[in-house]
Amino acid sequence: MGRDNFSCVVLEQLHKATDVWSSLDVVTTDDWREGRNGSKLAVSPLKTMGQNLGLPIHAIPRTRQEFKTWQLPPPFGTSENPPPSHVLITASFGRILTPKMLHSFGPNRCLNVHPSLLPAYRGPAPIQHTLLDGLTETGVCVIEMLEFKKGIDSGRIFGQAQHSVAPMVEFQRLRDELAIKGGNVLVNVLRQMLNGEETSEPQASDETAPLAPLITAELALINFETMTAEEISTRSRALRHNRVTWCYLKTGPTVQFHHISCVDAVPAPILDQLTSPGLGIYDPSSSCLVVRCAGDTFLQVQSVKRRSRALLPAKEWWNGAMRCHDFEVSISNDDEGSIPEYASRLDNEYTVSCFIPSEAGKHFKINFINLTTHFFAEARCYIDGRLLTRTVVRPMTRNWADGVQVTSTTKAFLARAQLTPFPLSDDEQDLSTLEHNVENIGTIEVHILRIVQVQEEQWTGQMKYPEIGPMHESTKKAGSHQVSLGKAEPSSPILRAHASFVDFPERPRVKFIYHYRPRDILQAQGIIPLPPAASSSRTSRASSLERQPPQRKRSHSIINDEPYMKKRRVADPEHDHLPSGLDPEPPSPPPHSAIAELYPELYGDTLGDDLAALEASHLQ
């Protein structure tokens, strides 16, 4: 009886010893579905090995309750006086055998192969806890199985063998080494039984012996302030076969660390920026993420995985998009793709901000990803303090905004947003422009609001985006950029969606704030590192793993959004001057109605019952 690779190796050793058995039956778990929506069929490794060896396979029920009434396959369990040649052997089986099953075999004929030197590490995870505790010696025992009420892994010991734990050994390697040794001990015990020479001794009484409880996700959680790099590396070696080490980001999501190791020598420029535990930065020389841990130790991470995302090399993860509460935003242009983000930080629980370099004459677009599974979202884009557009983003898809519709005919034309030099003037008449919110010049804000989409219709209106015009030189905007509209180009017609808010406009779910400046200004401010020749005189800012990393580009997405990426869906700010809750069309809108414009690929879609229920609960 077994299920995993440990039991496979034990079976392999037993199968080779043809002198101790006349027939072998394999009992293991039944096949089961796993993955998203049960897309993958999981098969017990022991079942696969048994089939390859041509052995009879018997499957046990999936649930523990059904297993309690499961019957042993014939000829086992059919006689009140079972013959001594019938032996029950378990290895990493993971189920508690009922008294009826145990009593179906004779005395001393129920054996278990356990990978520790009992009484130490009784429980389901002895190998993992051996590594976690940093032992240099362990072993394997073949013991008698007892009823549950008499204790787990507490039976008499028929045979045991010690084993040295190699430095930096991985779980898989130690598991296989102990399984080989355990299989050999089992074969020796069976030979002794055939000759009537078996001996056993009770386990030593040791109340201080460590236990080996189940491995949980919390055990793989990293605390950089209390754990050294060696402790974290050890935890990874012990658990990553099924529990990858992970930590929290203050911006909301969690990240897993794959392929980690301790690092002794850290380059001086990197070391200067890692001033306290929990700070991390990407090291181009090693292509790894370097993190400062407790005790002035440093961890090296080769690969990183965010929740619900693909595993990425450290460099690609470091160049990821700004993220907060299951929403992502990034800004890209036509020539270079995603624009790097610098000095990313968490301003509060629902606001993240960063700096991006701007270049005059470049068109840009704002990308959104909605990682929620059932919430529609509206992304409101404010450029220099003015509303550019409002865009609907469906659950588990992405969308973008890059301009406004400037015609009111059925043939739509879109004017794309572009960066231009900021016009200054010494004309005293331009002092009136100071009334404009000057501090918003040079900012791109995206406000995410959860909505319930209720109706769509084709729209041929015209969106307005007011130009700022020249500003007085006293604003100190010399050398800065602003956003203006480029030449209008033909575009697909737009759909308008009437929607009810789950989040109110004055309290958006998440805010993303981009401060855009010319690159030379950001370099002068120390936000962007100088070119390598001058980098020794300045140091760029470090980033905490408790915050969003700086200098970030968009990462890959595992969202299946291809059908939605071929066309755009934007929203219309034309009616933004209307009081909250009013919509000129239709005459009687639902409460908290908002106008959003969608492109035609969404036209005709219907809402699910869950969204309708969500709207009803909000309106109440």
UniProtKB/TrEMBL annotation:
<feature type="domain" description="Formyl transferase N-terminal">
    <location>
        <begin position="86"/>
        <end position="190"/>
    </location>
</feature>
<keyword id="KW-0808">Transferase</keyword>
<dbReference type="Pfam" id="PF02911">
    <property type="entry name" value="Formyl_trans_C"/>
</dbReference>
<dbReference type="GO" id="GO:0004479">
    <property type="term" value="F:methionyl-tRNA formyltransferase activity"/>
</dbReference>
<keyword id="KW-0648">Protein biosynthesis</keyword>
<dbReference type="InterPro" id="IPR002376">
    <property type="entry name" value="Formyl_transf_N"/>
</dbReference>
<dbReference type="InterPro" id="IPR041711">
    <property type="entry name" value="Met-tRNA-FMT_N"/>
</dbReference>
<dbReference type="GO" id="GO:0005739">
    <property type="term" value="C:mitochondrion"/>
</dbReference>
<feature type="compositionally biased region" description="Low complexity">
    <location>
        <begin position="533"/>
        <end position="543"/>
    </location>
</feature>
<protein>
    <recommendedName>
        <fullName>methionyl-tRNA formyltransferase</fullName>
        <ecNumber>2.1.2.9</ecNumber>
    </recommendedName>
</protein>
<dbReference type="InterPro" id="IPR005793">
    <property type="entry name" value="Formyl_trans_C"/>
</dbReference>
<dbReference type="Pfam" id="PF25534">
    <property type="entry name" value="DUF7918"/>
</dbReference>
<dbReference type="Pfam" id="PF00551">
    <property type="entry name" value="Formyl_trans_N"/>
</dbReference>
<dbReference type="InterPro" id="IPR057678">
    <property type="entry name" value="DUF7918"/>
</dbReference>
<dbReference type="InterPro" id="IPR036477">
    <property type="entry name" value="Formyl_transf_N_sf"/>
</dbReference>
<comment type="similarity">
    <text>Belongs to the Fmt family.</text>
</comment>
<feature type="domain" description="DUF7918">
    <location>
        <begin position="338"/>
        <end position="529"/>
    </location>
</feature>
<feature type="region of interest" description="Disordered">
    <location>
        <begin position="530"/>
        <end position="595"/>
    </location>
</feature>
<feature type="domain" description="Formyl transferase C-terminal">
    <location>
        <begin position="215"/>
        <end position="321"/>
    </location>
</feature>
